[in-house]
Specification:
Helix content is 0%, strand content 55%. It has no helices and 9 strands. A hairpin with a 4-residue loop joins strand 7 and strand 8. The model has no long low-confidence stretch (mean pLDDT 95).
Length: 89
């Protein structure tokens, strides 16, 4: 039931977990990450800009499988990412 950053196509410089968010910094501005989350994201942003929810991550954006809690994030032009979660869900 905990949130975890599982994989990144870039080196992860730092990651911070709180009750309702995950923030992390990657070495490369273009990267794809896989996270396990305990609730559906309210928003995902890279470099302060909101990323769209998509059916797949063939372009910048994110997907979340609510049954498995697997969140995939792709960002193409920023090294800092913030995932804001629905707390307590």
């Amino acid at each position: 039931g905990e949130n975890h950053l599982l994989h990144s196509s870039s080196v992860v410089r730092a990651v911070t977990y709180s009750a309702d968010s995950i923030t992390y910094d990657t070495f490369d501005a273009a990267s794809t990450e896989v996270l396990r989350v305990n609730s559906q994201p309210r928003s995902v942003s890279a470099g302060g800009l909101d990323l769209p929810q998509r059916a797949d991550v063939n372009a910048a954006g994110w997907t979340c499988d609510s049954a498995t809690g697997v969140l995939k994030v792709r960002h193409d032009s920023a090294t800092n990412v913030e995932v804001v979660l629905h707390a307590g869900v």
